[in-house]
Amino acid sequence: MHVVMIATYPLEPDRVVGGIESVTSTLVPALAAQDEIDKLTVLCFHTGEAPVATRREGAKVEIRYLRGQRRLGVATGSYLDVRRARAIIAELRPDVVHAHEIGLRGDIATQVSRKAVVTVHGLVHLETKLRARASLKERVRYHLVAAMVRRVLRRAEVVISISDYDARALAGMVRGRHVSIPNPTAPEFFALAPSRPTEQRLLFAGVLTPRKNPEGLLTAFSLVVQQVPKARLVVVGPQPDAEYARTIRERATALGLDEQVEFLGMVDNARLREELALARAVVLFSHEETAPTILAQAMAAGKPVVSSRVGGIAEMVADGETGYLVEPDDIDAFAARMVTVLDNQALATELGGNGHVRALRTFEPTAVARRTVETYRQVLGQQ
Questions:
Q1: For residues 256 and 219, what is the distance between their CA atoms, to the nearest angstrom?
Q2: Model pTM score
Q3: How much is the average pLDDT of 202-211?
């Protein structure tokens, strides 16, 4: 079968920006390795600078980089992108169109194909609602986004949930089939296990946004340093809002953490794996999440996780077995759990080993690809 995937995808090999790119760049080669897949074309609508217009990845995979609509995408139903996608779909005549997210890309896919599969990567309407109190503009945007999500879920032939959390949140909104398939994690992260002994070093990796609650993380870490003076925190990930990133750095300075916290910004996959190998544990203190990619990568690498208990995280991390979960905004408890893993290398190794076993059962890419192909076959009436 020929599949067209509409998704964010790395503009350059091994330079992954965000969780969805991590997922798609892992899933695409795993799908291509399946005998049922004859051809896989990725349409990547982007607003950055792609070094090439097309790129081939093996015999079956072609990536097409398309300059995306910059303005009024939500308000116009991505009109310009839909026109381009419709022309390409008419040219390629794929069997299945698979979009990754229930936002703009899902909206494109469900307008250009009746055989559309859409994977949920976050509840974009709820994330937008969190910002809706900020201004009239954000409130208007929320209503437009919510209407778009309802439209996508109504039109999609199949909706793939990546966690029970998002499946419950979308219950009653999906008209077609609704299945659950976790996100895959790249083999390179599994290869980091078993974890070797490390320094007292923690890693946060993710987009630097208020939803990830870096302010709370820094506050909790300032309490950690009082008990573990050698503790270090490395912050990795894109910083889309320069003003907000500056505010977070100023917060670290105000807490007296300039010597203990290192902000690396965006790094390539090789550097991310290097930082993950050096870390004692991965930490995340978000206000809202679905199924964070970095936590699956940490587990695959044999690293324990210390996280807030929000969204689908409790489905990924077994509290006391593969890491620790605390209630969101409980800064004292979060700090205490970070101290626990920093003070006890043997415990951290045990928790990380348990996480690796759990990740092999859940996030191994070949198994995820097989389940995805089964879903495609259902769409085509082959099962």
A1: 10
A2: 0.92
A3: 95
Alpha helices in 255-330 (DSSP H): 269-278, 293-300, 313-316
Contact in structure between 110 and 82 (CB atoms under 8 Å):
no
Instruction: Give 121's contacts (C-beta < 8 A, 6+ positions apart).
Output: 19, 20, 23, 100, 101, 102, 162, 183, 290
For residue 129, what pLDDT is reported?
78
Q: How far apart are the two ends of the chain, measured CA to CA in Å?
A: 14
Instruction: Please check the confidence at residue 137 and state whether its pLDDT lies above 90.
Output: no
Biggest CA–CA distance in the chain, Å, is 63
pLDDT interval class at 190 (50, 70, 90) = very high
What percent of the chain is modeled with pLDDT above 90?
88
The position carrying tokens 């990924």 is 316
User: Using alpha carbons only, what angle is made at residue 212 by residues 106 and 281, rounded to the nearest 5 degrees?
Assistant: 115
Q: Name the strand (E) or helix (H) holding 70.
A: none
pLDDT tens string 311-360: 999 999 999 999 999 999 999 999 999 999 999 999 999 999 999 999 99
| Distance separating alpha carbons of residues 229 and 242, to the nearest angstrom | 30
Task: Decide if 188 contacts 359 (C-beta within 8 A).
Answer: no
Q: Cα separation of 24 and 7, whole Å? A: 7
Percent of the chain with pLDDT over 70: 98
CB atoms within 10 A of CB 95: 19
Computed over its alpha carbons, how large is the radius of gyration of the chain?
Answer: 21
Counts of helices then strands in the chain (DSSP H, E): 16, 14
| Structure tokens given for 214 | 């870096």
Dist. CA 223–CA 342, nearest whole Å: 13
Distance, CA of 158 to CA of 177 (rounded, Å): 5
C-alpha 355/C-alpha 47 separation (Å) is 36
**61-67 and 54-57 beta bridge pairing:** antiparallel
